[in-house]
């Protein structure tokens, strides 16, 4: 008895663990989508299709695996499926190593020519205009100051053209910078220029001397200057400097001209997700009936709630792992100046897949090799099996597969032909589909997944763009509020069903009520708007057709600049430091890499940095996540009664088949189109697209109003359809038995005879027959 109890406990522990790990992978994939988009420069519609890869393979395989797996050793099938899942996760991470980004070999001939001064500039009588026109000096000294110097030294007044310089300008004494050339000397030159503009004298000898010194240094420090320019060109931010931005554009063009594109890594990820879909078919469709065979019906709500809670803990862990991995850059070393708070950050998405896959292998193998044990339990002296022993026994084979041709055997004991097996296969599914309750319940769950899956996939992008939350914080909030609320709701729903003994229409009414509450709460989120910094940049760009170039940054070469929001002291936001006209970058703190951009022609005060950026989203963020946890709690409460209604709406012999068919319909009509549908909805609100090699890449800025209303209206409309199907189930659910035990009047000895006969039938089936059965023909 102790051995049987230990086997049952050990099996349930292993099953709960692999179920938990399988759920981690699903939510972690959600946290990795945006990073994959950014690394491989793909739009949401394509990433949505790639994420649907697991469902493309799940759909055609689940109906066969649930049918044949339900007739064999279910522990072995589940273990094999989880091994496939583990290998698929590891394969998903492999493109980061199989297709590394090689250092670009740039043709910098033009840049080197601009860095190399003409001999005429080294002469004592070099014209001031020529010295100020030397490209490194031209990049560093603002245009209006250069023009004002020439005007003043030519004997003309500054009043007509640059009256703001009549009293000079603020000079900042900069020290050496990682991204600037000969910065202390430039500060000296700026001081001399300011003295000329505010003074009455027109002696420019000191200015010329320092300018010639700067030019001479470029001839002597050519290699060092080139290294600084290349470092600045690959930084995550862009600032005003023609040389730097020309190198940045050259790097982009070099990547576009490579022989291989992003097809190969995306193909590997897609194939891995196809394998993942095959593995996912087994734990759910075979595991739930297996548990149902080994616990009492009245205890099933609690067991199912517990298993669901453990499974839901998986997404919480997945989001936490996603948050952890998003703190690290996807490659090493991290570009200086780029932090996880930046909207262009690409997290180490591959790291989580490696962790999850490695942890899944061992318990999966343990399930695969789990001993079947003996099917016979010794009867007591009166000839019946002890009830305690029966409860503690472990049925790895379906206890209801004891009649007719369940195992491919005719009533007379002869093996079925291929045609007879196919007929039995079709009859099984026809019997499942004849249940109105089953069809209504399955349709409702399809709508639930169609609404929920895609919404969850793109929710991190929505929160980052709409509320200004960084990726790593989004994952933590989703785990804390959304997934935890759903898990708590699932446990509560299971306890309510058990405590109130809900059955039939009462259980169906509970599902209907919580579905209506969930739809209403999520629809209300469409009215929770605010103005984040990124959204503000998008609104400002509407008036100029998203052309952020103006007079103060026209000569900066900002065309290739990526989104890097910064603000001046008044809170005015800029697309990037380059668009703010900033010519100097200072690293205030090397530990946190706090950046300050100075000498900004377009910004009030001449300084911009991220710390100046403030929005009004803090309060709305709190309200948003309050509705998230409430709506998720309501949605979770319907999981246990909904699944028990579906499980009891068909004969016990068809439970695995019904779950497999439900998985088929959910994937084909729910999960598979969900990410594609939501990708289209999200992309429809895009304002600014990144350009990658002449084609559209990922979206960087969205229209906040359109994105908010379209996402939550779409969700609510789909959930309304789900509520109508729940109403249909309630109408037909009268008399449905959920918690009462099956007929136990049959003597225990007959049960034992049935189990033994089933085992003997399996042993005497020819291997050829088994091979034909487990290898369905196309």
TrEMBL record:
Subcellular location(s) of the protein: Cell membrane
Name of the featured protein: Solute carrier organic anion transporter family member
Family indicated by similarity: Belongs to the organo anion transporter (TC 2.A.60) family.
GO terms under biological process: monoatomic ion transport; sodium-independent organic anion transport
Primary localisation category: membrane
Membrane topology: Multi-pass membrane protein
CDD domains listed in its UniProt record: MFS_SLCO_OATP
Gene Ontology CC: basolateral plasma membrane
Record-annotated Kazal-like domain positions: 546-604
Keyword field contains Lyase: no
Transmembrane helix is among the record's keywords: yes
GO molecular function, one term: sodium-independent organic anion transmembrane transporter activity
Transmembrane intervals: 48-70, 77-99, 263-282, 302-329, 349-370, 476-497, 509-528, 619-647, 659-681
Pfam family, one: OATP
Keywords linked to the UniProt accession: Cell membrane, Disulfide bond, Ion transport, Membrane, Transmembrane, Transmembrane helix, Transport
């Amino acid at each position: 008895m102790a051995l049987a109890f230990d086997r049952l406990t050990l099996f349930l522990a292993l099953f709960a663990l692999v179920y938990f790990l399988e759920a981690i992978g699903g939510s972690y994939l959600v946290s990795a989508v945006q990073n994959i988009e950014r690394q491989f420069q793909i739009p949401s519609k394509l990433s949505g299709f790639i994420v649907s890869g697991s469902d493309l393979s799940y759909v055609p395989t689940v109906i066969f695996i649930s049918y044949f797996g339900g007739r064999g050793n279910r522990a072995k099938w589940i273990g094999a499926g989880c091994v496939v899942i583990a290998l698929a996760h590891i394969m998903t991470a492999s493109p980061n190593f199989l297709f590394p980004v090689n250092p670009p070999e740039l043709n910098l001939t033009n840049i080197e020519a601009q860095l190399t001064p003409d001999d005429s500039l080294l002469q004592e009588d070099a014209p001031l205009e020529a010295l100020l026109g030397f490209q490194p000096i031209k990049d560093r000294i603002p245009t209006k100051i250069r023009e004002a110097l020439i005007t003043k030294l030519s004997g003309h007044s500054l009043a007509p053209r640059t009256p703001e310089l009549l009293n000079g300008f603020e000079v900042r004494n900069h020290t050496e910078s990682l991204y600037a050339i000969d910065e202390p000397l430039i500060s000296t030159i700026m001081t001399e220029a300011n003295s000329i503009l505010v003074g009455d004298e027109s002696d420019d000898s000191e200015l010329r001397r320092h300018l010639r010194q700067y030019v001479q240094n470029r001839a002597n420090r050519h290699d060092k200057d080139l290294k600084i320019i290349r470092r600045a060109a690959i930084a995550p931010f862009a600032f005003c400097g023609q040389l730097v931005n020309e190198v940045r554009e050259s790097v982009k063009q070099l990547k576009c001209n490579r022989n291989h594109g992003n097809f190969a890594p995306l193909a590997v990820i897609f194939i891995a997700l196809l394998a993942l879909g095959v593995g996912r078919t087994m734990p759910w469709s075979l595991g739930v009936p297996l548990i149902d065979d080994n616990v009492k019906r009245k205890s099933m709500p609690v067991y199912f709630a517990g298993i669901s809670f453990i499974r839901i803990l998986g997404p919480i862990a997945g989001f936490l792992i996603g948050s952890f991995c998003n703190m690290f850059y996807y490659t090493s070393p991290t570009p200086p100046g780029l932090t996880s708070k930046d909207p262009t950050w690409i997290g180490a998405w591959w790291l989580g897949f490696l962790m999850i896959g490695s942890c899944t292998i061992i318990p999966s193998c343990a399930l695969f090799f789990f001993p079947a044990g003996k099917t016979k339990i010794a009867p007591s002296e009166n000839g019946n099996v002890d009830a305690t022993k029966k409860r503690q026994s472990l049925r790895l084979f379906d206890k209801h597969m004891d009649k007719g041709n369940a195992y491919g055997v005719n009533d007379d004991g002869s093996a079925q032909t291929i045609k007879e097996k196919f007929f039995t296969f079709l009859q099984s599914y026809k019997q499942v589909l004849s249940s109105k309750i089953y069809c209504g319940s399955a349709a409702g769950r399809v709508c639930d997944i169609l609404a929920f899956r895609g919404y969850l996939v793109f929710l991190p992008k929505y929160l980052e763009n709409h509320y200004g939350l960084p990726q790593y914080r989004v994952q933590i909030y989703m785990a804390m509020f959304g997934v935890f609320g759903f898990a708590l709701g699932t446990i509560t729903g299971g306890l309510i069903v058990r405590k109130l003994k809900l059955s039939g229409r009462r259980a169906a009414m509970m599902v209907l009520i919580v579905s209506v509450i969930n739809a209403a709460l999520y629809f209300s989120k469409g009215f929770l708007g605010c103005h984040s910094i990124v959204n503000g940049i998008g609104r400002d760009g509407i008036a100029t057709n998203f052309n952020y170039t103006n007079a103060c940054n026209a000569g900066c070469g900002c065309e290739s600049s990526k989104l890097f929001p910064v603000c001046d002291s008044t809170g005015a936001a800029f697309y990037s430091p380059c668009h703010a006209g900033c010519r100097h970058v200072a690293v205030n703190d090397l530990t946190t890499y706090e950046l300050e951009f100075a000498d900004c022609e377009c910004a009030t005060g001449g300084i911009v940095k991220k710390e100046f950026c403030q929005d009004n989203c803090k309060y709305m963020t709190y309200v948003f996540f309050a509705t998230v946890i409430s709506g998720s709690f309501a949605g979770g409460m319907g999981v246990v009664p909904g699944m028990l209604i579906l499980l009891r709406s068909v004969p016990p012999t068809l439970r695995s088949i019904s779950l497999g068919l439900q998985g088929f319909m959910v994937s084909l009509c729910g999960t598979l189109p969900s990410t594609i549908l939501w990708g289209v909805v999200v992309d429809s609100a895009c304002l600014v697209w990144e350009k990658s090699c002449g084609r559209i890449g990922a979206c960087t800025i969205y229209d906040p109003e359109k994105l908010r209303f379209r996402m939550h209206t779409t969700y609510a409309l789909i959930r309304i359809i789900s509520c109508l199907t729940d109403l249909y189930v309630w109408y037909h659910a009268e008399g449905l038995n959920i918690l009462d035990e099956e007929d136990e009047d049959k003597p225990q000895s007959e049960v034992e005879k049935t189990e033994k006969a089933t085992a003997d039938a399996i042993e005497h089936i020819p291997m050829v027959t088994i091979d034909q059965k487990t290898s369905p023909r196309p």
